[in-house]
Specification:
- The protein is an alpha/beta fold.
- Helix content is about 45%, strand content about 15%.
- The chain has 2 domains: about 170 residues, Glycogen Phosphorylase B (Rossmann fold); about 180 residues, 3-Layer(aba) Sandwich (Rossmann fold).
- The strands form 2 sheets. It has a 7-stranded parallel β-sheet. Strands 10-9-8-11-12-13 form a 6-stranded parallel β-sheet, sandwiched between helices.
- α11 links the parallel β9 and β10.
- α2 crosses α17.
- The model has no long low-confidence stretch (mean pLDDT about 95).
- Pfam families: Glyco_transf_4, Glycos_transf_1.
- This is Glycosyltransferase family 4 protein.
């Protein structure tokens, strides 16, 4: 089969949507190698995560013709120009990997779009109103034109039904996996080097994610304050800094735990496995996610997970993790103390997590997607 992809994020984003796009293409090339994969992108970029992928024999890259680039209209090409590319006429499937599809694709092509989340509709107050309108217009148009809508979780599938009235019969849930680097065991020296670089203590609690309201780090600060000082571990908070950090710092100051917080805002992605593997426990008290890939990264890294009830969290973290009400600091403090003091519980959570994430392996994802392409 000839399968086309909207690959803008694959080339130019090195977090969520970009990681998902590269994961999908690498999985397909590794486990469904007998097909031809065409990547359509407004611009390319040389990067260690991208170069090996585009060098694969099954992969072809298509960029805008000069008539679009000379007038700086590459984004327009992504929306309306791709359909006119000669290579599109050879495709059997076109898959939009990041909630969008080009318009006017030939009728003979099976059109598939992946929708990651509709958080902008569930929590519009967290977004610029203009952005909400743009995001909604794009995803709504893509879902209407698609033959199949891939949701990355049952939660996202339900949101598609509730917010956009996408027919349930049109939606297929295909989970996502984490970057393969999280399956590599860091050496003790590598872990110590990362700890030394960022002046981290020997034992710490880890939280990863953009410092924003929805990620709910305030709950972790409140739980920390409820613990006895003797059992309290430092908390390493890794993620992009936003205005929300001010609230976190103020809460920590008022609670007397600011000295227990370590903020890291510029950690290279390749250092994440050692950072995860050096932690005692991963705490993710988010209010809502489309899936929650850091939960999978933590379990792949072999550390226990505490996360929120509701949303998609049980889908991503499985039965071996611990769950707390994202508005109950006492509950989080209790579960955190349990994990830090009970070695047998930790071992069981780690083993259960490793077993659970087997369903997110690349060979499973590749098989599920190819079944959609060929179905």
């Amino acid at each position: 089969m000839n399968i086309g992809f909207d690959a803008k994020r694959l080339f130019n984003n090195f977090t969520g949507l970009g990681n998902y796009s590269r994961f999908v293409l690498n999985a397909l090339c590794d486990f469904e190698p007998g097909h031809h994969y065409v990547l359509y992108t407004p611009k390319t970029r040389k990067h260690p995560e991208v170069t090996p992928l585009v060098g694969r024999a099954q992969v072809q890259v298509v960029t805008p013709p000069w008539s679009y680039t000379i007038f700086k209209a590459a984004s327009l090409w992504r929306t309306v120009g791709i359909a006119g590319e000669a290579s599109v006429k050879t495709l059997q499937v076109f898959h939009g990997l990041s909630q969008e599809l080009p318009v006017n694709l030939p009728t003979g092509i099976k059109k598939i779009v992946t929708v990651h989340d509709l958080i902008f509709l569930r929590f519009p107050r967290l977004y610029n109103p203009i952005d909400v309108a743009i995001y909604k217009t794009k995803v709504n148009a893509a879902c209407k034109s698609a033959d199949v809508v891939v949701a990355i979780s049952q939660q996202t599938a339900q949101d598609l039904i509730d917010f956009l009235q996408v027919p349930a019969s049109k939606i297929k849930v295909v989970y996502q996996g984490c970057h393969p680097q999280f399956n590599t065991v860091a050496t003790p020296n590598q872990i110590q080097e990362v700890k030394k670089k960022y002046a981290l203590p020997e034992r710490f609690v880890l939280n990863v994610g953009t410092l924003e309201t929805r990620k709910n780090v305030l709950l972790l600060i409140q739980a920390l304050a409820l613990q006895k000082p003797a059992e309290r571990l430092p908390v390493v908070i890794v993620g992009k800094e936003t205005a929300y950090k001010k609230q976190v710092v103020e809460e920590a100051q008022q609670s007397g735990v600011l000295e227990s917080l370590i903020f890291l805002h510029e950690v290279p992605f390749q250092e994440f496995p050692a950072l995860f593997q050096g932690a005692e426990v991963f705490v993710y008290p988010s209010l809502f996610e489309g899936f929650g890939i850091p939960l999978v990264e933590a379990m792949a890294s072999g550390i226990p997970v505490i996360t929120s009830t509701g949303s998609c969290f049980s889908e991503a973290a499985g039965p071996g993790s611990l769950y707390v009400d994202p508005e109950n600091a006492e509950e989080l403090a209790h579960q955190l103390s349990r994990v830090l003091s009970d070695g047998e519980l930790r071992k069981q959570m780690i083993a259960d997590g490793k077993k659970f994430i087997g369903q997110f392996r690349p060979e499973v994802i590749a098989k599920d997607l190819m079944a959609l392409y060929q179905g």
